[in-house]
Amino acid sequence: MLRSLTSQSLTRAKLYPSYFSSFVNNNIFQFPMENKHSQSQDMKDEQREVYCKEAGGDYNPSNRASDCILPHLLNLYASRSKAQDFEIYAPNATFEDPLMRAEGVKQIKSSFYSIGKVFSESRIVEYNITEKEISPGNKEILIDNKQYYKFLGKDIHMISLIKLYTEGGKVVRHEDCWDKKPLRNRETVKVPLVGRMMEVSRRASMFLTHVLMGCGKDPTN
Questions:
Q1: Can you tell me whether residue 122 is helix, strand or coil?
Q2: Please, which domain of life does this record's source organism belong to (predicted)?
Q3: 77 vs 190, higher pLDDT
Q4: Other C-beta atoms within 10 Å of 168: how many?
Q5: Sign of dihedral through CA atoms 147, 152, 155, 159?
Q6: What is the DSSP string of 134-198?
Q7: Distance (Å, rounded) from C-alpha 124 to C-alpha 145?
Q8: Band of residue 64 on the pLDDT scale cut at 50, 70, 90
Q9: Among the four residues 27, 43, 157, 162, which has the most C-beta atoms within 10 Å?
Q10: Residue 161 has what pLDDT?
């Protein structure tokens, strides 16, 4: 998720200084290797616990979809993501925030890989999760969170509401609503044409970012 070096993002930082600032377990039981599977699961649980505590959240092991997704999501926002972290997304997944809209995993990669190019530090520092099933196998995950960024030596703090929608355990839609405000589009603004222009602007921003980031190419290191 790139906080682009555009006049729009820099203006936002000035106006709101206090605010701007593998994946789904398949549960494949191989009875001859039951002990090995158990040990591997224990290691995953320990890793999740470490990541969650780093972000100031509580970790309670369960079968919730967010248990599998959260460690990878924390990696994305902390600029330490690797190719496997993006396996939480379905191939046709979308990501959107007030600055850009990504369509497909490669564009989502460009969005998050670019964070480290703009900010010297970034991470989710505090969060609270609500998860509910909206239909069989499909869930809505709401992450009420606080994010931290360091830009040109300045600390930027921002509150956000991350909305994840999953199908079959994969994220199909990821929205990052800054200040917990709905994303502005043709459906949420009074003048649909203005909303449409905002949508086009976010797509243009994403296209530029995608090109600059090598069209979603994974880092070699």
A1: strand
A2: Eukaryota
A3: 77
A4: 11
A5: negative
A6: EETTEEEEEEEEEEEEEETTEEEEEEEEEEEEEETTEEEEEEEEETTPPPPSTTTSSSHHHHHHH
A7: 7
A8: confident
A9: 162
A10: 98
DSSP three-state, residue 105: helix
Mark 83-112 as b/e (b = at least 16 C-beta within 10 Å): eebbebbbeebbbbbbbbbbebbbbbbbbb
In angstroms, the CA 74 to CA 70 distance is 6
Query: Where do we find the tokens 């905002």?
Result: 198
For residue 139, what are its two tokens?
A: 């869930």
Distance of CA 16 to the CA centre of its chain: 21
Tokens, residue 170: 């994969």
Q: Are 172 and 165 in contact (CB under 8 A)?
A: yes
